[in-house]
Design brief:
Elements (H helix, E strand, L loop, with lengths): L2 H4 L3 E5 L5 H12 L11 E5 L6 H7 L5 H13 L4 E3 L9 H7 L7 H7 L8 E5 L2 H6 L1 H8 L3 E3 L3 H13 L16 H16 L4 E4 L8 H7 L4 E3 H13 L5
Parallel strand pairs: 1-2, 1-3, 4-5, 4-6, 6-7
Helix pairs in contact: 2-12, 6-8, 6-12, 9-10
Length: about 250
């Protein structure tokens, strides 16, 4: 059986943040189970830095990302994508709208994370994510549907630790994860938020922002509880859904 008969072609819409799409493509390669390059998953990656910032739109009334997201997904479809994904947790606030606008299925990162959670890790999960996701309740709803309790950062924890680590701070001259800074200060900020979730009873930490996925190893080394990455969950689901022979 040829490669094209083994896998569907996966389309990755990257650029939210800059490394997210590349990181997901790398994890697909790792998880595919391929023994040779010819057995790998056919993958199209479109990194679009022009998609308006999702948090800026949700919290501050900035430009909507909807039309650029739709256009970008269509670029992947026109190039041959048969299964789509968006490695940006916050962008899934628009998942329903996007799914109505394109004809190729988009794997839902957040629902996948909740559905595939290992119950052996406990049912109270600490979710490290953006302010927009906390306010819109996507993780809380997905967890509730699967009998899990989502422990979310408080508004103060989001402002002081999570969002500073992701976006940095102009006033402090601090470059965040969006600027590819994965240094000790950034890891320390995110770990401060993580510790507070653990103190409130989280039996596992969920990395629910693809920027935070970039410091998975550092957080795992610090954490006394298991760390589960939404990027890994998405990659595993893509492998499952792509591994289907064409009719």
């Amino acid at each position: 059986m040829s490669q094209s008969e083994t896998w569907k072609t996966v389309g990755i819409l990257g650029g939210m943040g800059a490394e997210a799409g590349v990181e997901l493509a790398h994890r697909l390669i790792t998880l595919s189970g391929a023994r040779t390059d010819a057995e790998q998953i056919p993958c199209l990656l479109y990194t679009n830095p022009c998609i308006p910032d999702r948090t800026a739109n949700l919290l501050y009334g900035g430009p909507s990302p909807t039309e650029e997201l739709v256009r970008s997904l269509q670029v992947l479809i026109d190039a041959g994508a048969e299964l789509l994904c968006i490695p940006c947790n916050t962008a899934h606030i628009w998942h329903e709208t996007l799914s109505e606008r394109v004809d190729v299925p988009i794997v839902h990162m957040i629902r996948t994370m909740a559905a595939n959670h290992d119950r052996g890790l406990g049912e109270r999960v600490g979710v490290l994510c953006t302010t927009g996701l906390v306010r819109f309740g996507l993780y809380q709803s997905a967890c509730a549907e699967h009998g899990l309790e989502a422990l979310m950062p408080t508004e103060d924890e989001l402002e002081q630790y999570v969002m500073r680590a992701i976006y940095g701070s102009l006033d402090e001259g601090l470059v965040g994860l969006k600027g590819s800074n994965k240094g000790e200060t950034i890891v320390g900020l995110m770990w401060e938020a993580a510790q507070r979730l653990i103190a409130r009873g989280a039996s596992a930490l969920w990395l629910a922002c693809t920027e935070i996925s970039l410091i998975k190893e550092e957080l795992t080394a610090l954490s006394p509880v298991p760390v589960v990455d939404a990027m890994d969950s998405l990659a595993e689901e893509l492998v499952r859904q792509a591994r289907r022979a064409r009719a």
